[in-house]
Amino acid sequence: MTIVLEAKNITKQFPGVLANDNVDFDLRQGEIHAMLGENGAGKTTLMNIIYGLYRPDAGQVSVDGQPIVIHSPKDSIQHGIGMVHQHFMLIPVFSVAENIMLGDETTRYGALDRKTVAQRVRELSHQYGLDVDPHALVGQLPVGLQQRVEIIKTLYRDAKILILDEPTAVLTPQEAEDLFRIMRELTEKGVSIIFITHKLKEVLAVADRITVMRAGKVVGTVKPKETSEKKLAALMVGREVILKVEKGRAKPGAEVLKVDGLKVHDKRGLESVSGVSFSVRAGEVLGIAGVQGNGQTELVEALTGLTHSPGGQVWFAGSDVTNRMPRTITETGMAHIPEDRLRHGLVLSYAVADNMVLNTYYLPPFGVGGILQPKAIDANARKLVQEFDVRTPSPYVPTSKLSGGNQQKVIVARELSREVKLLIANQPTRGLDVGSIEYIHKEIVAMRDRGLGVLLVSAELDEIMALSDRIAVMYRGQIVTIAEAGKVTREQLGLWMAGAHPEGLSHPHT
Amino acid sequence: MDWRRFGFIALIIAILFSVVVLIGKAQISPLIIITSMMATTIAVATPLTLGALSGLYCERAGVVNIGIEGMMLAAAFFGWLAAIYMNTIFLFAPMPSLIVGVIAAILTGGLFALLHAALSVTFKVDQIIGGTVINILAVGITGFLNRQLFFEKGSIFGGNVPHAPGVLPRIDIPILADIPVIGRIFDQQPITWAAILLVFVTHIVLFYTRWGLRTRAVGEHPRAADTVGINVFYMRYANVIIGGMMAGLGGAYFTLESVPSFEPLMTNGRGFIALAAMIFGNWTPFGAWAAALVFGAAQALQINMQFFREAIPPQLAILQISYVVGLTPYILTMLILTGIIGKNIPPAADGQPYEK
Amino acid sequence: MQSSEERFSNPILGLLRAAANALLVPLLAVLTAMIIGGIVIALAKGDPFYAYVGLFQGAFGSPKALSETAVWATPYIFAGLAVALAFKGGLFNIGAEGQLAFGAVMAAWIGYALPGVLGIDLPAIIHIPLAVGLGALTGALWAAIPGFLKAYTGGHEVINTIMMNYIALNLTSFLLNAPMKDPNPDNVIARTPLIAESARMPIIFEGFRLHWGFLLALGVAFLIWLLLWKTTMGYEIRTVGANPDAAKYAGINVKRTIVLTMALSGLLAGLAGAIEVTGLNYRHELGFSIGYGFDAIAIALLGKTHPAGVVLAAILFAAMRNGATRMQFLTQIPVDVISVIQALILLFVAADAIIRYIYRIRAREERVVLTRGWGG
């Protein structure tokens, strides 16, 4: 098989990180070559170099055996390289056709020729089985379709080499299957694909070859038949990884959180949570599974007081906390690890010590009579840094200087060091390295065993299945069902996440 | 632009017009008053329209520009200065002098915009602070040069301000301007006509051309634009400079079209009001023009009321105080920004520097 | 990275190093602006060296010059603190000018009219604080309006404070031309009558104009520092300024904090106006307040929005304004050149990347978010 793309000795230095360290990589005609690695291993950096978004400090990229010079995506597009980014590069207020033609516009008498472009988009849709309406506004399409628009965008530019960066992160297991079918169809028609992911199961299911990266280096290239999940994980992390979270049976106690018919609107004023009911008991983990954007964000915001809810009730620790101020709810004993830690959870310019009192700064011993008590804040920070193993040179370093995992530990430390009855953890391990993920998983189980109720929201099905005692599935603002964790399969959950109606299971109740 | 906004705009203009008509109708026929109000409204809306278009090019490309006020002030000064130089030193006839003045004003706007682009695109300075720098710089430079060139002994004009070559002549639209009474509306000066023309041109450029598609892409999601090979920096620089030239033309209105003289601080907040017009117009050219006309009408009210000061009935005595009538555009701006007439949605990447 | 640990191990050395780091870029910005200003002066056929000597003499060359510089600095400190405090709370207060004007108008009215209205003579110990306090309060209320609009309607404070400057200018023009105009038949200027003796702040040294307002300004700067870094209210203001979403998550009442921050900012600007009236001019005149708003922004930015920095920057700006007269006397360069230099200082401070580029200094600190877009 001929090699269509080759990257040799690629090195890229960012301030403080060697993102790519002498990396070699090649892609053969018509194969799916998976690129596996942890967050921050350097996969995306390498792809951005191949695609022309970054310039390498050293190294050479060749296409069809010819060394090429890439200054910008324009050059890589010219050489037949297309990339679907993890965060879609689509403009929500533009139509599908406008998004696809952007940068490669067809004009007639100086004006945009939307008609011709739409026609061409329809042709491509048919040819590759990617049905999409060229006149629809991209912002109004579901993510699965947006991804198709991204793929068509590359095909429109005659891409022969397709880079897919974490394409399954936003899909249900069934949608992911569908994507894999499309990928195979594309390779049959001569397209070669680089598939970037950190999910072991997917790699084994779809790839022809697997290259593993760790800390900026390529640590090996293997064939799926010659390896296993366990081996890949060890290669990826550099040590044996326990894929299963150790936990005993839950000993659920009294109800700490009870939600009844809760409704929430999103920022645009549309109903995104339509009357959900459930409860969380002390000493159990209730996992909320679901593809991103099915109302989980708004649900958590309403529970924690960040958003107003127009209907329904929330009972927490015996009192009605519906539409109470965040401070009241926090003081009642709720801990919250927010979904977007940089936006909600931390003030990045503040020292670690200041972030560790973000919601207790006004309470003794940190604030007495309106005056901050630096000694108490300092003692608290030193204690938590040690207890929660936060890797920081000092408690007075701006939090922005910490790694993602350590930033998350600052939040976990702050939230769990208070006297709390319930922990709401929303996507607690998103974007973290395996070490931090293991740590946070252990903490969550420890909290449960200490008698806290835990509400875990995650788009990672594996995480939900590993930690939860009961699993609720959210789809389009509703809880489709709540099931005992041991009694459902991955496939079953995947179907519910895609909106299939549960049969043989009782309707959602408390 | 939605119909609610246009309805609101029509309502405000109607109210402003009726106030003048009701007070003045005993002296002059309502038709003449309305004609005069309309003609004045269109004329005084000119710098606002151009300022709003200036903001539109910048912000559609993702650069907030609160330096329009300063760009207009500097352009007003340098345009005027160029015209005087041509007229008195190089002895050009008035008309060519004025044309050179307009060109100089446009270039001044472009030059200040280049500085703003460098600050916000290359140096990634907080864009609102960058705009404030432009404003303060314009006040400083025009104030200093105005004094240095005209009021100091031994200066080039010997300590007195020479006569400017007048203002740009009116151009009337052939048939429409011949209509009795209301024909006056179609008899305006060239920068006014240019502003109206540019509203249409901007609409076409933004929504029907490759340039416009790319400009909007850069303002909505610069990274997405970058990934398809569009040079974000170039697009932002170019649009900010185009915007600056619009502001420059708007500045020329003050000293080459409205009055033949310059005064320090003479733009008097018009650049900021233009920005409010752009926001109220929801970042669309026609919307911005409509909003500019509202502010124009408020100013026309103030101008036309002077003729009828004696006729103001005692229960409306407050309108006799010109300072109070003069507040209308400012209060209107604040009212509109509250969003009571509909939420304003800026381009998604407006104000954010692009980090590669 | 070691610096923060060091600060604890050797506080004095650490503090000195921190101060040197903080001052480096602003000082180079001033230097660069002065060099360009020198070129401008040379182009205007003046001798830049002679001009700057004149500037320095005029600002610091005699006890009187020093006193006058401090007199100039007083309103600059207050107004600069006003803008700096707002920046700390994530708000851009361009409206210091209007707030200052209303503070001055109110202080003047208390000063010349209140005894007559009440029909009693007020002792100085009551009259002065009353004039200053109510003047400051007027500034606070005027600034609270855009704060309220920002918090509850999303109306952007940048445009609203600018609009309110024009409204203030119109309203004070009306007041000073009509109801509050000095009734003296010889007077043609839009100004109030002189305030009563009992409302005048005492001077510090006989024969100089320097008044107690200057010391008050230094005291207030210290208080603002305490407020921002030593109190829970300051923590709230800074948190709302640095990350309003996190502030909401932390249980801080973001809307109330925004209104409060603007009111405090307006209070400081109002103080600037009230103290100019009670300590220096003894009346308010239209035009006294013009230009302070922009100067205050430049001072706040040059002072890196830190109270100590604001005091230094205010003194620098005051020295330039004060020394400019002597400079003009010596070189015939109009005082307006100072505005150009100050604008350039602001340019280089705002775009410190330019300064870092020219002098090859590497960035040490995080980019601080000062303002936010129109989104609402």
Q: In a nutshell, what does this entry contain?
A:
The complex is a heterotrimer of chains A (510), B (356) and C (376). Chain A is an alpha/beta fold and 510 residues long.
- Percent helix of chain A, as a range, is 25-40%
Largest sheet of chain C: none
Any idea what the CATH superfamily of the largest domain in chain A is called?
P-loop containing nucleotide triphosphate hydrolases
End-to-end C-alpha gap of chain C: 36 Å
Number of domains of chain C: 1
Which CATH top level class of the largest domain in chain A fits? Alpha Beta
Reported by name, the CATH topology of chain C is ABC transporter involved in vitamin B12 uptake, BtuC
- Which secondary-structure class do the elements of chain C indicate? mainly alpha
Q: Identify the strand order in the major beta sheet of chain A.
A: 6-9-10-3-11-12
Count of β-strands of chain A:
24
Oligomeric organization of the protein chains: heterotrimer
**Mean pLDDT across all amino acids of chain C:** 90
The domain tally of chain A reads: 2
Question: What is the 3D form of chain C?
Answer: globular
Runs of chain C in which pLDDT lies below 50 for 5 or more consecutive residues are: 1-8
**CATH architectural grouping of the largest domain in chain A:** 3-Layer(aba) Sandwich
Largest interface: B-C, 52 and 53 residues
Overview of the structural elements:
The complex is a heterotrimer of chains A (about 500), B (about 350) and C (about 375). Chain A is of the alpha/beta class and about 500 residues long. Chain A is built from 17 helices and 24 strands. In chain A, strand 9 (about 160-165), helix 6 and strand 10 form a beta-alpha-beta unit. The longest helix of chain A has 16 residues, at about 175-190. The radius of gyration of chain A is 24 Å and the shape is globular. The model of chain A is unreliable at about 505-510 (pLDDT under 50). In chain B, about 55% of the residues are buried. Chain B contains 14 helices and 2 strands. The longest helix of chain B is centred in the N-terminal third of the chain and has 29 residues, at about 95-120. Chain B has helices at about 5-25, 30-45, 45-60, 70-90, 95-120, 125-150, 190-210, 210-220, 220-225, 230-260, 270-280, 285-305, 320-325, 330-335; strands spanning about 170, 185-190. The radius of gyration of chain B is 21 Å and the shape is globular. Chain B has a domain at about 45-280. Chain B has about 350 residues and is mostly helical. By secondary structure, chain C is mainly α. Chain C has a single domain, classed as ABC transporter involved in vitamin B12 uptake, BtuC, CATH 1.10.3470. Chain C is about 75% helix and about 0% strand. Chain C has 16 helices and no strands. Chain C has helices at about 5-10, 10-45, 50-60, 65-90, 95-110, 115-120, 125-155, 155-175, 210-230, 230-240, 245-250, 255-280, 290-300, 305-330, 335-350, 350-360. The longest helix of chain C has about 35 residues, at about 10-45. The radius of gyration of chain C is 21 Å and the shape is globular. The two termini of chain C are about 35 Å apart. The relative contact order of chain C is 0.20. At the B-C interface, helix 6, helix 11 and helix 14 of B face helix 8, helix 13 and helix 15 of C.
